[in-house]
Design a protein that fits this description.
By secondary structure, this protein is mostly helical. It folds into two domains: 31 residues, no CATH class; 54 residues, no CATH class. 58% of the residues lie in helices and 0% in strands. It is built from four helices and no strands. α2 packs across α4.
Amino acid sequence: MVTDSHSILARWRKYFSQLFSVHGVSDVRQTKIHTAETLVEMAIEKLKRQKSPGTDQIPAEMIKAEGKTIRWEIHKLINSVWSKEELLKE
């Protein structure tokens, strides 16, 4: 389990590098995150209904029902984490 912020960021960087490599991006740090909106939409579409919510306790049905509002907020959050290279503190 990764618990320190440096390792968490490194794991996210690796994840997005692998994700964007499918789209021909060689350096994820040089990529603008404008594609995150599309990725958020795809991820929300893949959410399964009638499943237990995750640690955030937000059921998939609620996320899907919110439509563009929730997608925009998630997109803003991703952009913030991306540009600051810093995870939000609880």
